[in-house]
């Protein structure tokens, strides 16, 4: 029952986070196109389009990272897992899962503390607190942690699994 709940939550969480990342990517393309239009057609682009574009691309990547990880979309070498005996391969999978979980949770904590520490500064183009765009980092790391927890210490998917 616990495994089916985990797999259902993962099956729901992946498309939701990828849809949110896709929406941010669409917004990013719109901001870039507006900047290009303003610069070359209207005669001058506002400074905020470049800054918004940078923040949106970072937020897009951070939101999608967990879903892409659970689908096996990140580049990695899985040869060692195939060459090891089954028991050692299972141990390696648990080690990789724990290490990823630790790094993702640690990244969430460190990036959250950093985002809060720069709250007194504002961005040059948008004029908002730097904390606002930097909060995409801990949110992304938390989503990665969530996806890693839901996926569990199972072997990661490979390109051959998706064919």
Automatic annotation (TrEMBL):
Primary localisation category: membrane
Topological relation to the membrane, as annotated: Multi-pass membrane protein
Keyword Cell inner membrane (UniProt): yes
Keywords linked to the UniProt accession: Cell inner membrane, Cell membrane, Membrane, Transmembrane, Transmembrane helix, Transport
GO terms for biological process, alphabetical: C4-dicarboxylate transport
Cited InterPro entries: DctQ (IPR055348), TRAP_DctQ (IPR007387)
Subcellular location, record wording: Cell inner membrane
Domain called Tripartite ATP-independent periplasmic transporters DctQ component: residue spans: 29-149
GO cellular component terms listed in the entry, alphabetical order: plasma membrane
Membrane-spanning intervals of the chain: 21-40, 52-70, 91-112, 132-152
Record keyword Ribosomal protein present: no
Superkingdom of the source species: Bacteria
One of the record's GO molecular function terms: transmembrane transporter activity
Function as written in the Swiss-Prot or TrEMBL entry: Part of the tripartite ATP-independent periplasmic (TRAP) transport system.
Family that this chain belongs to: Belongs to the TRAP transporter small permease family.
Subunit structure: The complex comprises the extracytoplasmic solute receptor protein and the two transmembrane proteins.
Protein name (database record): TRAP transporter small permease protein
